[in-house]
Design brief:
4% strand, 2 domains, AbiTii domain-containing protein
Length: 357
């Protein structure tokens, strides 16, 4: 079968399999991700309990020496801190102490590298799926699926800056009037924002893989029953085996490669303008596609222009045989180009022309 819709279904099935394989790889790289995230934030919440609560100057890195919540009688005195004095038991973290603490947390560099390797595979899969499924925009009841598919090429990562305000410390009491209404980002807040962004990015990619598979499955389930917009005609009825002459209703008349006129063209005053608009849209898509070379595009554009010119004549003066011949000639060139074939099927049907495929 050399059927546009069948080819699209096969392509989607292949892509779904590749997405499933990628999801398996994802879970191997990010196994126990929920457990890892919970453990990470438990440590960070514990560290936040040891914070002095005075996020200005070097105090952004002042914590109780145990790196756990201090006893009730050892609470940090913000009043003392605002005069630059550090109460007993409270220390400014050194780089060595920070490095030691961060070794207990997930390795951000390693996780980012794993995520990048998955995205390098996932991004082209999604982009090609969007390009190849462009045809469904010409079909009834597929707008939602195409929008969902298109949205998947959007955001790919979250940044810590998007989460930092969530962990900022505000409304700090201080005798220093210059500090009033200000807020700061202590060491643990920066870490929390970093890991929050990282785990959100991991789940974003997981959701992209799952959503891509789900949308493509929904498209494939519906494609066998697809109808061209504005016609109500089953698109499957317009495509059949190579060499078979097919009527608009899908009936095979003969096994031949000769041209034959389907009879009186079904072109009336109501649909003439729509056909001309469809031909202009076809030319626009022809210019955008990269599946044909310049010479092929020029030939197709020339034939399309001649069809448009012929249709502009009074109906009794139109050379229907010429229109029929050029439509079928164009079809032979574009039947394997997803972005163009469905448009031409719709145009041929409106003209009452049966296609040889």
């Amino acid at each position: 079968m050399d059927v546009v819709i069948s080819d699209l279904i096969k392509f989607n099935e292949t892509t779904i399999k590749e997405l499933n394989d990628l999801l398996t790889s994802f879970y191997k790289n990010f196994s126990n991700i929920n457990k890892i995230e919970n453990s990470c934030f438990q440590k960070l919440i514990e560290l936040s309990g040891a914070y002095c609560g005075f996020p200005f100057g070097h105090y952004t890195e002042v914590y109780y020496y145990t790196l756990k919540s201090p006893p009730f009688d050892k609470q940090f005195d913000v009043g003392v801190g605002s005069f630059g004095r550090q109460p007993d038991g409270w220390i400014q973290l050194t780089n060595q102490q920070k490095n030691k603490f961060e070794k207990e947390l997930p390795n951000t560099g390693l996780m980012t590298d794993k995520l990048t390797k998955i995205n390098v595979v996932l991004l082209p899969l999604i982009q090609e799926a969007i390009d190849r499924n462009f045809i469904i925009k010409t079909l009834d009841n597929f707008d939602e699926q195409y929008v969902e598919l298109k949205e998947l090429e959007g955001r790919w990562i979250y940044s810590p800056q998007e989460f930092i305000d969530k962990y900022s410390i505000r409304d700090v009491f201080t005798r220093d009037s210059s500090m009033i209404s200000r807020y700061g980002y202590p060491y643990h807040s920066v870490l929390m924002a970093t890991y929050d962004a990282l785990f959100h990015s991991v789940r974003l990619v997981e959701n992209k893989i799952n959503s891509s598979s789900r949308v493509l499955r929904r498209i494939n389930y519906a494609l066998p029953f697809a109808t061209v917009k504005g016609t109500g005609d089953d698109i499957i009825n317009h495509t059949i085996q190579i060499g078979s002459y097919v009527q608009g209703n899908g009936n095979i008349l003969s096994n031949t490669t000769s041209y034959a006129n389907s009879g009186q063209m079904n072109l009336n005053i109501e649909n003439k303008n729509e056909v001309e608009k469809s031909l202009q849209e076809f030319l626009r898509r022809l210019g955008e596609t990269d599946e044909l070379d310049k010479y092929q595009k020029d030939d197709i554009a020339e034939d399309t222009d001649k069809i448009i010119n012929e249709l502009s004549k009074p109906q009794e003066s139109q050379d229907e045989g010429m229109i029929d011949h050029r439509v079928k000639k164009i079809w032979r060139s574009v039947k394997d180009v997803v972005a163009l074939s469905a448009s031409l099927v719709s145009i041929a049907k409106a003209l009452g022309i049966s296609l040889i495929v």
